[in-house]
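User: Show me an example of a complex going from sequences to structure tokens.

Assistant: Sure. Here are the input components:
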Amino acid sequence: MSALLSRLAEARKEGNVARLAEAIPYARWMQIAPENGTGELLTRMRYHPELIGNTFLPAIHGGTLGAMLEMAAIFHLLWETETETVPKIVNITVDYLRSARPVDVIACAKVTKQGRRMVNVFAEAWQEDRSKPVATANAHFLVKSDADAPPSL
Amino acid sequence: MPPLTSKEERIALFQQWFSDNIPHNKALGLKVIGASRGFASMQLEWREELVGNPETGVLAGGPLTAMLDGCCGMSVATMLKAPEPFATLDLRIDYVRPAEPGKPVIAEAECYRITRSVAFTRAFAHHGDAKDPIAAAAGTFMLGTKGKATRPPLGDKP
């Protein structure tokens, strides 16, 4: 069993989803972590100056928004679905709706279609006002072990 | 300033501009390795903190996303007649195979069409052989957005 899946089992036992991020070096470095304090699973990317992609506005780098939407989708699949393998991302399309200011970014995800091997996930990111998303994404993940599958985690 | 004609000068200027104005690219350690009209290429060194799965050492999708976004953006910048602000409209990434642990990743982007409002780009990420990609990207960019120019001045006429 992968370290992430054993971490998932521990996190479930403790009811503390934030522990999932501890098993992913990139999530730790980016300060991206899931939280479920409100009962809803959300993923937060804590603002730090290294996220900036445009010093003039200033605005958060679009690539980091894509990255956190992808992480939000993965955390959602791990926590909210009965996955037995770590989901492998096949592709992601990110739409950039507004420039993201230098504050925390929060995202939620939902499964649009759950197939036997493939899952389609929608994710949405916002800052202070949830009705004003800064970016949305659609992604496909393989959720069945397959030696030939694409990467991800 | 006279127009920059040498390849080295152009790369150095983009690298400098990149590191000064795009802190996240600097944090990732993105290195500009090529810049010519319509084309941009960059290199990302493998490092532990960019890994998604510590058991395999495979990079997370995020660093590739950020790199491909940056590289596509830079290919747009090389097409601008004068510095002008622009922003990513959408970005699609296909992860076609895992990045190999420990190996640097190279991204190569092409801006193949630019209009008054929108620029269209494609990019591939690979380990040195462009015919054996790790990821493929398609990005579109909106031109004339808010803020200041997102391109270094390359000796433009006023």
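The lines above are the inputs; the final block is the predicted structure for all two components together. Chain A touches chain B at residues 2-4, 23-30, 49-57, 59-64, 66-68, 70-71, 86, 89-96, 99, 150-153 (CB under 8 Å).
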